[in-house]
Amino acid sequence: MNILICDDDKEIVRAISVYLENEGYQVFKAYNGIEAIDLIQEHVIHLIIMDIMMPKMDGITATMKIRQDNMIPVIMLSAKSEDYDKILGLNIGADDYMAKPFNPLELVARVKSQLRRYTTFKNLEVSSYVFQTGGLMLDDEKRIITVDKKEVHLTPVQYKIVRLLTANAGRVFTIEEIYEKVWNEHAINPENTVAVHIRKIREKIEINPKEPKYLKVVWGVGYKIEKY
Question: Where in the cell is it found (predicted)?
Answer without folding.
Answer: Cytoplasm
